[in-house]
Specification:
This protein is of the alpha+beta class and 423 residues long. It folds into two domains: 208 residues, HIT family, subunit A (2-Layer Sandwich), CATH 3.30.428; 168 residues, HIT-like (HIT family, subunit A), CATH 3.30.428.10. It is built from eight helices and 19 strands. The strands form four sheets. It has an eleven-stranded antiparallel sheet with strand order 1-2-7-10-12-11-16-17-15-14-13, with helices on both faces. The two termini are 26 Å apart. Belongs to the galactose-1-phosphate uridylyltransferase type 1 family.
Length: 423
């Protein structure tokens, strides 16, 4: 396999043939010490005839430096902490610094500029995170993380008020932002498949590297899209959380997949996928490597699960080149059809609010071998002018009540395009 000249090497990420020839990853460090990566797919940057700006022009304090409080007293960096709920066993990260993060979307907007946009020379807002005036895809550590590993802070369990009922320890994870494109007014659904292929590579790259960090138990790439979802920055972007614990949703799934394996010797996610394929009615898309279906027990008004057809894939970095291309195609098609799902009467659809959540096998837990990579895509919009609110039963008891049926969701998707989307 030939390598792009001067393509940097990483300790755990290994590019496939396409990425080695047609993508370039350029690392740098922001002025406060955070990691930053350009992922370029434009040939002039890939071949090195043009280079990205690496120096952050801002004069930011070191991210973990002490600071002065309102009384002018120097205080240490407020490292995020997490406490364990004795009733559920869930770890709850608590990060007071996030109260100060900029918000550019919605009625509560606090910032005029967009920190995720490329730098604009002469613009009065110059606190953007991207040093260059253009980019393809970038990934960087969140400036206001809910979890972060702070040098010199021991990852030890303490007890709130000295009572062993309440465990507390540092929220020693990592939070990253991934920007899909430099057009701050664009939509992920409008991006070309080639750009989404770069996004897929970014997911694989960061999964490989983050999984190797000491203390990380789960790597979770996800995308929140739409003001109704609560997105605070209006820009096509997603996030990647590296948890120092297994998140409750995945823990529940691992309990069921492991119990299924011990009872039957099978893989529950694989068998669910094949059962949906055999039933046929709820399968909404399929190409050479992936299948998308509305699960038989869907709870959201619009819900789609996506799985790779090949067995043995636990995480995104295990996908081969063909599977990464097919994923980019399927994700693009899913986003575009999602935007047409609800009809406002003009036939144009709408910008669908959604969450796209990558469920990957845990990093170290032995149950990982009986799990399987899958994407869970959903929206709480239940009509063009209605939202499903999580009220007493859902929020209070996690007892879901669906407003539709999986078959009706699938039927609507079938109206929007063919099941077979393979090139």
């Amino acid at each position: 396999m030939s390598q792009t000249p001067n393509q940097p090497e990483f300790a755990h990420y290994q590019p496939g043939e396409y990425a080695a020839e047609h993508l370039r990853i350029t690392p740098t460090t922001l002025s406060d010490g955070r990691d930053f990566f350009y992922l370029d797919d434009e040939p002039e940057y890939v071949n090195g005839s043009r280079t990205r700006v690496l120096d952050d022009p801002r004069d930011l304090d070191y991210r973990f430096a002490p600071h002065l409080n309102a009384e002018g007293v120097e205080v240490k960096y407020a490292a995020p902490q997490m406490r364990r709920d004795p009733l559920t066993g869930d770890w709850i990260p608590m990060a007071t610094a996030r109260m100060n993060r900029p918000i550019t979307a919605g009625a509560g907007a606090t910032a005029k500029g967009n920190p995720l946009a490329a730098r604009k020379p002469g613009d009065p807002y110059q606190d953007g995170e991207v040093p260059d005036t253009d980019y393809d895809v970038v990934v960087f550590e969140n400036r206001f993380p809910s979890m972060v590993q702070v040098p010199g802070v021991p990852n030890e369990v303490r007890y709130v008020d000295g009572n062993p009922l309440w465990q507390e320890r540092p929220a020693a994870g990592r939070c990253e932002v991934i920007c899909f494109d430099s057009d701050e007014n664009g939509l992920p659904a409008d991006l070309p498949v080639e750009r989404l292929r770069t996004v897929v590579e970014a997911w694989a790259f960061r999964t490989a590297e983050l999984s190797a960090i000491d203390g990380i138990e789960q790597v979770f790439p996800f995308e929140n899209h739409g003001e109704e979802i609560g997105v605070s920055l209006a820009h096509p972007h997603g996030q990647i959380y590296a948890y120092p614990f297994i998140a409750p949703k995945l823990e529940t799934e691992l309990q069921h997949t492991q119990a299924y394996f011990e009872r039957t010797g099978g893989n529950l996610l694989r068998d669910l996928m094949h059962a949906e394929i055999d039933a046929g009615e709820r399968v909404i898309m399929r190409n050479h490597s992936w299948v998308a279906y509305v699960p038989a027990a869907a709870r959201w008004p619009l819900e789609v699960h996506v799985q790779p057809l090949r067995d043995g894939i636990l995480t995104l970095d295990q996908l081969n080149d063909a599977e990464r291309w097919d994923l980019a195609q399927m994700y693009s098609t899913l986003l575009r059809r999602g935007n047409r799902f609800f009809d406002k009467g003009d036939g144009k659809g709408m910008d669908l609010p959604y969450i796209a959540a990558w469920h990957q096998a845990p990093v170290r837990d032995a149950r990982r071998e009986n799990y399987r990579l899958n994407l869970q895509f959903f929206s709480f919009r239940r009509a063009a002018n209605k939202i499903k609110y999580l009220a007493g039963s859902e929020s209070g008891m996690a007892a879901w009540v669906s407003d539709t049926t999986p078959e009706l969701i699938a039927q609507r998707f079938h109206e929007l395009g063919p099941v077979d989307i393979a090139d």
